[in-house]
Amino acid sequence: MIDPKIEDAINGQINQELTAAYSYLAIAAHFEKTNLSGFANWMHQQRLEELDHAMKLFNYLIDRGGEIKLQAVENPHKDFGGPLDVFKLALGMEQNNTKSINELYRLATDLNDYATQSHLKWFIDEQVEEEKSMEDVIAMLELAGDDRSALLVLNQQMGSRQGDPAAVTGE
Ligand code: MG
């Protein structure tokens, strides 16, 4: 039987992943509205990844005999600036998520829950990728600066990001 403290923390992390998905959905809407459909596509792919993270934890908690307790998802940000501001905001969100995963790992370590530690290793590696992908886009946007044609090239590139067809199932 899973420790109730771990159960609560995993439920909290499921909420955090769903909150991230909701925020990326809001950002995708913002990019659609500002005619940057490539950036919107990128954010939709990101949103699907977050849903997949939530499902990985959901499936894991069920496998361990835990109870799923879904919580309200926070309202996403409303006032977004230009793409650079948005990606800086997204990087901050990912950094917070990394902290949250690390805290969950620490709790699993303190409680000698080796299965949860093992499951979380995938998330720890994934967060390295998540932060790097935000930083890469920030670097490109900084290079583009105020050059609108560079922004349009970048928008086109962002439009080519494709998702994993198996995503969102948590498999
Ligand atoms: Mg995530």
Summarize the model shown.
By secondary structure, the protein is mainly alpha-helical. The chain has helices at residues 4-33, 37-63, 83-110, 114-144, 148-158.
Would you mind describing this structure in some detail?
This protein starts with a helix and ends in a 13-residue tail after the last helix. 74% of the residues lie in helices and 0% in strands. The chain has one domain (4-159): Ferritin, core subunit, four-helix bundle (Ferritin, Up-down Bundle). It is elongated, with a radius of gyration of 17 Å. The protein is mainly alpha-helical and 171 residues long. The chain is built from five helices and no strands. α1 runs antiparallel to α3 and α2 (37-63) packs parallel to α5 (148-158).
**Mean pLDDT across residues:** 95
Bound heterogens, unique: magnesium ion
Give the oligomeric state. Answer: single chain
Which CATH architecture is right?
Up-down Bundle
Please tally the β strands and state the result: 0
Query: Total domains, how many?
Result: 1
Would you tell me which CATH topology applies? Ferritin
**For this structure, what is the CATH homologous superfamily?**
Ferritin, core subunit, four-helix bundle
What is the CATH level 1 assignment? Answer: Mainly Alpha
**Total helix count?**
5
Low-confidence sequence ranges? none
End-to-end Cα distance: 22 Å
Overall body shape: elongated
- Rg over CA atoms, rounded to whole Å, is 17 Å
Report the order of strands and helices. Answer: HHHHH
Structural class: mainly alpha
* Relative helix content: over 70%
Strand percent estimate: under 5%
